[in-house]
């Protein structure tokens, strides 16, 4: 059990207005919406199992459960995990979510097991060498129809101690102190295209964004990756939704 003193995110998750809000990550939500149109299947399999690493207070976990996944929510903050359990009950998805108070570096990733692996800003909260090890475990744990969604803070973020972030005169996040591993331009993309990752990229973006979901308004530099296992080509992702067939 963590205590408020040892849990960096305790205050953020203890507020009535819980940090990061309830809106799931946008690209993840877009993927899940198309899944809903695919009759509860991913390719030729049922929707299946998901793991949400650094799940926080669970905005992505709840969306995954609502889309039909059985979700394991992993985090070091038991205040965050308690909020996930509350929210899961409120959204009638409690039976689909299991919380796990665990360091992502200690988590057991079975190979070829998860149909969705989510890591929304956690690989940047651990040292670079550890992040690369966890990344490879994440990739190896994906099934043939698996999807991987990752967000990390980049050196464009004003909390970064290197350029260009550290030259930018914009407000920094209240929780920037927890980010210790800002990703360089293209670094996450390079990991995604490495042969041993065995991924196919559906979306990749590096961007600046304003954040109003916790504390005083501030800006972030982020890299966002949505990928599937190489060889998986869901015909319902992307163009059919953006450019629907006209009847
Ligand atoms: C910026 S928050 C993001 C929360 C959530 N993914 C979201 O987007 O709403 C980062 C989360 O990672 C968790 N975290 C940081 N280091 C961790 C580690 N080594 N193992 C597990 N969780 C960790 C923190 O407790 C925190 O909840």
From TrEMBL:
Q: Per its UniProt record, what SUPFAM superfamilies does this chain match?
A: S-adenosyl-L-methionine-dependent methyltransferases
Keywords, alphabetical: Methyltransferase, Transferase
Q: Does the keyword Transferase apply?
A: yes
Instruction: Tell me one GO biological process term.
Output: methylation
> Gene3D superfamilies, alphabetically?
Vaccinia Virus protein VP39 (3.40.50.150)
Q: Has UniProt tagged this entry with the keyword Coiled coil?
A: no
- InterPro entries noted in UniProt: CFA/CMAS, Methyltransf_25, SAM-dependent_MTases_sf
> Any idea where the Methyltransferase domain is?
51-146
List the Gene Ontology MF annotations in alphabetical order.
methyltransferase activity
Tell me the domain of life. Answer: Bacteria
UniProt-recorded name of the protein: Methyltransferase domain-containing protein
Q: What organism is the protein native to? A: Neorhodopirellula lusitana
Query: What are the leading ranks of the lineage?
Result: Bacteria, Pseudomonadati, Planctomycetota, Planctomycetia, Pirellulales
């Amino acid at each position: 059990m963590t205590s408020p003193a040892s849990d960096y995110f305790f205050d953020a998750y203890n507020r009535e207005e819980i940090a990061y809000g309830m809106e799931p990550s946008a690209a993840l939500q877009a993927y899940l919406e198309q899944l809903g149109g695919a009759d509860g299947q991913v390719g030729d399999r049922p929707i299946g199992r998901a793991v949400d690493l650094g799940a926080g207070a669970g905005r992505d976990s709840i969306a995954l459960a609502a889309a039909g996944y059985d979700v394991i929510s992993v985090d070091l903050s038991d205040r965050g995990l308690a909020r996930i359990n509350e929210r899961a009950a409120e959204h009638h998805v409690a039976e689909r979510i299991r919380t796990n108070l665990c360091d992502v570096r200690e988590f057991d990733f079975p190979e070829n097991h998860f149909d969705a692996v989510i890591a929304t800003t956690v690989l940047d909260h651990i040292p670079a060498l550890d992040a690369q090890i966890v990344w490879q475990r994440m990739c190896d744990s994906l099934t043939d129809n698996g999807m991987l969604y990752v967000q990390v803070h980049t050196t464009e973020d004003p909390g970064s101690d290197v350029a260009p972030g550290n030259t930018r005169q914009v407000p920094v996040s209240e929780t920037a102190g927890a980010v210790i591993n800002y990703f360089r331009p293209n670094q996450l993309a390079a990991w995604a295209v490495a042969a041993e990752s065995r991924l196919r990229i559906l979306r990749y973006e590096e961007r600046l964004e304003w954040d109003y979901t916790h504390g005083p308004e501030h800006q972030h530099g982020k890299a966002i990756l949505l990928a599937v296992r190489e060889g998986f080509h869901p015909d319902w992702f992307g163009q059919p939704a953006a450019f629907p067939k006209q009847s």
